[in-house]
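Q&A log
Question type: sequence-to-structure
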Amino acid sequence: MIAKRGFASDNNSGVSEEVIAKIIEVNKGHVVGYGGDDYTGKVIELIRQKFGGECWPYLVFTGTGANVLSISAATNSINSVVCAETAHIQEDECGAPEKFSGCKLLSVETEDGKLNPELITKHLVGFDFEHHSQPKLISISQPTEMGTIYTVQEIKNIANLAHKHNMFLHVDGARLANAAVELNLPFEAFTKDAGVDILSFGGTKNGLMSAESVIFFRKELTLSFKYIRKQAMQLASKMRYMAAQFDAYFENDLWKKNASHANKMAGLLYEKVKDIPQIKITQKVEANGVFVILPKEIIEPLRNEYFFYDWNTARNEVRWMCSFDTTEEDIEGFVKKLKDLLNGKIK
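Response status: OK
Response body:
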């Protein structure tokens, strides 16, 4: 049975054929486990090349794992982490960052998911005061959970603020490829070169099966990380299969092909619905997501045909996500259904 494509999440998409082929390719014979194999070694070097050479990557299973381990490597339980209220670490990780790092999350209200120095500074208090958790990490998402994208200068501004206060900057890059193609910049330009200290680099939302990584741009943060990764149950015994996915991801710039298509489809969806008077687009469409306020009565009938998630039920706001395998036909059918519902042709 082939499931119908919807607009719920890029996690719901399948896996790129190139990735499956590479997994099959490495599925031969015996190799050293736990990352001691040549496949993993090759991918570590590929990641270093993509991020400007001076970095230290570690492969992990999940995006939550990457975020939690990034925080754990840079903090201890007396510290706090500043993030947007919509951040994945705040909203969608079941308290895992706080449970495993012991840190306090300080969430910041934003209009578009983006932090800035003015918003952050309000939370940079209590330094050297024993009654306060000590701010140590700023975490931003690129793109944000609202589909908006930080410019290089915006990231530099946040990094400078962090470093001024002896803090670190972490980026949740679960959809980093989508930001790269929108910015039309190499990864290093808006990570390492912009002052980022730790990156959660994802691929699962962009055509991989299950492969993420933590990338450090400061070597001192890695000193105990291999133990932290093992203790957190994120050290893969058969790591060659995770490495194979990243190998395929970088080969022939599959990452760019997939992310470009997903972004293009979101742009097409936006163009087809932006002038419909009964709906309201709530965020800039800069990556592969479209956020829309709909008449309440059509949400469920539309969702029954093309599945998607609510974003803010109080104001009937929903999120439509496009993926590397979204087609123009998917969008045509979706928009037709939407218009039919709005025009009362379907009840």
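Response note: Residues 17-253 form a domain with the Aspartate Aminotransferase; domain 2 fold (CATH 3.40.640.10).
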